[in-house]
């Protein structure tokens, strides 16, 4: 190459770097800060998070929350003002684990292992008032097994988990309900052959991920599938998920699946299921959220691998970039971003959610620090 050619290349490289680092750059404007907002801390694992306007609803295994120097009782359910970080008075009390939360208007739907909320019997699924936390009178079912994930869309509440019977009738880990009355949607009976861990509604499609090998015995439904509002498998989507899918998110460019496996994976797919890109970690990816064309990934990994190859116990074979429990990637091409909101602990991050209106991302789990500072089990980035 001539000197002139080398000089032109150098100038182009410098210009590209300057554009990336510019304060007005879309790449930097889109990503949230790695230092978390001040929030209450929790004495047990956070397993579910959901935004509704300025309110962040939280569920899990905790029994108390500390805010403003005071520790108060919160039995597995709590709410936080996502703008100010203040703990709200919303305090329905579940008698066992809450694993899933979905919000629609003034209805807060919760699912998990509980048998009662605030002394009112509910078999693992309940509708609560978003204002006072009251248990809805008529929204009541009899379930064998429990919901792991809830989603609202198309005038329905969708649930996925380990459920094998509903009001005495056999089901196969998936169900849909009238969100006002709790009545099961007749005929919506997809048949997953193992646990469903994630349910997400996008338009008329319902994406589901989990441990299942197939839904309805259909091909192309291993670990990840798309369903129609009738409950049939949407054959326009073919799964390329290589491992168990713990969480699913939908972004502007496609579908994102947080997966386990040798090490762990974050798989990016088109709306037909074709693979777009993959990030490999040295531990499971367990949660995922998308905000402003950035994909945020939570799990129990300590490193993002520089190739897809993993060795003993999922270790990175070809080198790694340190990212502890949390990482971020460009949605378009999967490039790892320099966002290092490092957590701690062994099991790490279990849930993530994003708020477009607040431009915030929240992570919940078993961690107790973020970037070395105390942030027990809940961290919000904005």
UniProtKB/TrEMBL annotation:
InterPro entries: Delta_60_rpt, Quinoprotein_ADH-like_sf, WD40/YVTN_repeat-like_dom_sf. Residues 1-29 form the signal peptide. Pfam families: DUF5122 (PF17164). Keywords: Signal. The keyword Signal applies. It comes from the Bacteria. The keyword Signal applies. This is Delta-60 repeat domain-containing protein.
């Amino acid at each position: 190459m001539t000197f002139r050619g080398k000089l032109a290349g150098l100038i182009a490289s410098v210009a590209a770097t300057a554009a990336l680092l510019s304060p007005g750059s879309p790449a930097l404007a889109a990503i949230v800060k790695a230092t978390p907002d001040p929030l209450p801390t929790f004495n047990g694992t956070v397993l579910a998070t959901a935004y509704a306007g300025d309110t962040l609803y939280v569920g899990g295994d905790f029994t108390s929350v500390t805010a403003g120097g005071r520790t108060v009782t919160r039995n597995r359910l709590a709410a936080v003002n996502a703008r100010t970080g203040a703990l709200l008075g919303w305090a329905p009390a579940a008698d066992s684990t809450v694993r899933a939360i979905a919000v629609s208007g003034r209805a807060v739907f919760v699912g998990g292992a509980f048998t009662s909320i605030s002394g009112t019997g509910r078999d693992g699924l309940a509708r609560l008032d978003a204002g006072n936390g009251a248990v809805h009178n008529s929204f009541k079912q009899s379930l064998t097994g429990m919901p792991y994930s809830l989603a609202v869309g198309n005038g329905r509440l969708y649930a996925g988990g380990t459920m094998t019977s509903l009001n005495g009738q056999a089901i196969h880990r998936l169900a849909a309900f009238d969100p006002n009355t709790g009545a099961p949607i007749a005929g919506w009976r997809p048949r997953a052959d193992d646990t469903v861990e994630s349910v997400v509604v996008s338009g008329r499609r319902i994406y589901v991920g989990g441990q299942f090998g197939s839904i309805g015995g259909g091909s192309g439904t291993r670990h990840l599938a798309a369903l129609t509002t009738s409950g049939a498998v949407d054959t326009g989507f073919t799964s390329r998920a290589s491992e168990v899918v713990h969480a699913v998110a939908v972004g502007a460019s496609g579908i994102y699946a947080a997966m386990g496996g040798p090490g762990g994976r974050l798989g990016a797919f088109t709306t037909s299921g074709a693979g777009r890109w993959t990030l490999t970690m040295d531990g499971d990816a367990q949660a995922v959220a998308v905000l402003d064309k950035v994909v945020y990934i939570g799990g129990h990994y300590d490193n993002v691998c520089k190739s897809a190859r993993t060795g003993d116990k999922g270790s990175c074979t070809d080198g790694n970039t340190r990212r502890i429990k949390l990482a971020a990637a460009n949605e378009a091409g999967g490039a790892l971003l320099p966002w290092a909101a490092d957590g701690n602990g062994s099991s790490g991050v279990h849930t993530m959610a994003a708020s477009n209106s607040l431009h915030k991302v929240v992570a919940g789990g078993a961690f107790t620090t973020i970037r070395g500072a105390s942030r027990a089990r809940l961290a919000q980035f904005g």
